[in-house]
Amino acid sequence: MKIVLNDTNEELVNKVIQYGGENIYKCFQCGMCASGCPVAGDTDHKIKRTMHQVLLGLDEQILDKKSIWLCTTCFMCLERCPQNAGPTEVIFALRRISAEKGIIPDAQIEVANNIYHLGHAVTVEKGIKLRDKVGAPVLNTAGSDKKHIDEIQRIINLTKSFKLLKIKKDWKPKGDEVIACD
Ligand code: SF4
Ligand code: SF4
């Protein structure tokens, strides 16, 4: 890949610092973060590379890609970093910046809408029916009672999340046939 440093965005690192990645300049590219990352081996998400790209101001190399959304936020990189450079916090900051630019993968928009309307990141109807079928006790969850969902919606409505995460009032869940619970 050809990288033209003259085209870099020097604002990116400042924005990352402003949005929570204030220790990013401590990164000395040792790679300890990547060595423990559970998704690095199977996906395009490479945390050491992302740290370097931010420091170089390569915003298009980061924000136009989906890889920052593949981080599971397990905090392993943060635990392992000998410099306390906060790689997970840098990922959070990049996601905030990306969301402000309207760049969010469809899967994240779906999760946000699920939480807003159902109280869950994924639909759980199939699992509830299965519990009922095998005689398992009723499961009380955030989505079991409308008052909990109302509370979730009130909180989200008070933040910028509603707009940033493209939550829709008339959104319909895709259903258990599409998401999890098998
Ligand atoms: S974030 Fe920490 S662990 Fe990762 S490359 Fe930088 S200094 Fe090393
Ligand atoms: S927090 Fe994200 S980047 Fe860090 S180790 Fe976990 S999955 Fe990898």
Automatic annotation (TrEMBL):
Where is the 4Fe-4S ferredoxin-type domain positioned along the sequence?
A: 24-84
Q: Which GO terms describe its molecular function?
A: iron-sulfur cluster binding; oxidoreductase activity
Record field: transmembrane: none
Recorded GO CC terms = plasma membrane
The record's listing under Pfam families reads: Fer4_8
Gene3D superfamilies in the record: Alpha-helical ferredoxin
SUPFAM superfamilies noted in UniProt: alpha-helical ferredoxin
The entry sums up its family as follows: Belongs to the HdrC family.
> What's the protein called, per UniProt?
Hydrogenase MvhADGHdrABC CoB-CoM heterodisulfide reductase subunit C
Q: Which organism is it from?
A: Candidatus Methanofastidiosum methylothiophilum
Lineage, please?
Archaea, Methanobacteriati, Methanobacteriota, Stenosarchaea group, Candidatus Methanofastidiosia
